[in-house]
Amino acid sequence: MKLNKSALLGALSIGIMSISIACATPQQAVTQLKNNADQVLNILRAANGSNDNQVRRQAENYATPYFDFERMTALAVGAPWRGATPVQKQALTQEFKTLLIRTYSGTMLKFKNAQANVNNNPMVTKNGREVTIRVDVTAPGSKPVRMDYATYQSGNIYRIYNVTVEGASLVTVYRNQFNQTISQKGIDGLIADLHAKNGN
């Protein structure tokens, strides 16, 4: 079985990996990442076909508080973000968050039998305030796929602000799309397009 990397990126970044740390240190970030990956995979494995939606929502609710969707949106929008009003920034963040969750949540259950092997030696920058953790994800019958979770220290936790799969950055992929829309329709046009894609 060949893994769909885009689906894997979104599904795992929204549904599988979250970081919650009692005392924020890089090594504790790695340890908690391992624990939380196991916990969410266990949630997904409880699906029996009749309760798939409930299980998926449970996994999403567990993971999403540990993602910084505003920072992810700012990175995905790029330079035009600085010119957006507070109201536009809020709308963009909400629509982008909804897009990510709705686009990939349906694929989460496909990876419930995956194995997530977390590297014990993260890349630490800015005196430990930013930590990038490598994870090799393997689904039955597939080769491992490398994922890199970029996180930053926020109080006593590390929050995810970007995910890279085999060199493909989530925020960069969307930035290319968003910049084209903004150049043609402006910030409000991007908000409207995202709103439409989200089925609102």
TrEMBL record:
Q: Name one Pfam family in it.
A: MlaC
Q: Which InterPro entries match?
A: MlaC/ttg2D, Tgt2/MlaC_sf
**Keywords from the named record:** Signal
Coiled coil where? none
Q: Known PROSITE patterns for this protein? A: PROKAR_LIPOPROTEIN
Q: In its keyword annotation, does this UniProt entry include Oxidoreductase?
A: no
Is Signal one of the keywords UniProt gives this record? yes
Signal sequence coordinates: 1-24
According to UniProt, the name of this protein is: Putative ABC transporter, auxiliary component YrbC
